[in-house]
Amino acid sequence: MRRLLNSGREGGWLSGYPFLVRLFAPPYWNHRNHRMHRALLQLSLTLLTMSASGVLFAADSDVVLEVMARADRLADDRDRDARSKPQFVIPLLNLEPGDRVIDLFAGGGYYSELLAGIVGSDGEVILHNNPGFESWGINQLNDRFSAERSLDNVTRHTRSGINLDLQAESVDAALIVMALHDLYVIPKRYNGQEYVRAGNAANTDYFYGQLHTALKPGGRFVVIDHQSNPDSSLEAATDLHRIDQAFIRSELSAQGFTFIGSSEVLSNPDDDHDRIVFDEDLQGHTDRFILIFEKAASASALQD
């Protein structure tokens, strides 16, 4: 299946549908008309179900929808489905049953439980947090791991700061949802008149290095975050808990990740990029980008 999806980059079945390339390969052309883009996205999904090769991708989306429909899911998770659209997000990870995937800074574990249903009993989901993110999501975590529920293939993995504590080439894919910008936030405190710097942003080189080492060759890293005003400085953007997707592409490319595509399924052109994402009327309705990266496969793997 991974080989099937990757085949689109070298003139495979995706090349027959150029508007699909944006999901799985570098953006050879851009959609300026958002309504047209959404229509093309829906058409692309229909074509995938019609294509003999595309059935595998459509089945992935179908499997996610089946997991989403399970009766034992938490009510809060069901409420979140409409705005998070995991049936479009999770297939981008290119997962198979038995895979091991890490949900980075997972908070309450919304995606972790869905991923558990995808990789199955032979796979493993690493629900990663640091103490701060775990505290933020503790109520959902308590509900998710209550005695009457069973998530045997989800491992809670709380580590300090930005430490991942993973072995080399031990995970098939990684997901980070609306948390990557936090690594660039400069801590500040209020001195009675204004907010002043109170520390340094995280060591992102260290974080990305750990993740790149932990991913298996060909493993994907999917990033979802709040889009900032592209003309804002990094500090101004992260003060609003936003970040520019072009900046993330540049950062991850410099760290050895290969950019292979993006999706606008969570975009909102009506979002005000100069407002903080925690404003009540914005929560759940921000303009969110999805970027898909990959750790380059080894030469031997490409020959298999």
- In the CATH classification, which architecture applies? 3-Layer(aba) Sandwich
Strand content: 15-25%
Q: Tell me the name of the CATH class.
A: Alpha Beta
The best one-word shape is globular
| Order of H and E elements | HHHHHHEHEHHEEEEHEHHEEH
Tell me the structural class: alpha/beta
Instruction: Describe the largest sheet.
Output: 7 strands, mixed
N- to C-terminal separation? Answer: 14 Å
Task: Report what the structure shows.
The chain is α/β, with parallel strands linked by helices. It has a single domain (74-303), classed as Vaccinia Virus protein VP39 (Rossmann fold). The chain has 13 helices and 9 strands. It has helices at residues 2-6, 21-24, 34-50, 55-68, 75-84, 86-89, 110-119, 131-136, 138-144, 204-214, 234-239, 245-254, 299-303; strands at residues 100-104, 124-129, 154-158, 171-177, 188-190, 195-197, 215-226, 257-263, 288-295. The longest helix is centred in the first third of the chain and has 17 residues, at 34-50. The radius of gyration is 19 Å and the shape is globular. The two termini are 14 Å apart. The model is unreliable at 3-36 and 45-59 (pLDDT under 50).
SSE layout:
Layout lengths: L1 H5 L14 H4 L9 H17 L4 H14 L6 H10 L1 H4 L10 E5 L5 H10 L4 E6 L1 H6 L1 H7 L9 E5 L12 E7 L10 E3 L4 E3 L6 H11 E12 L7 H6 L5 H10 L2 E7 L24 E8 L3 H5 L1
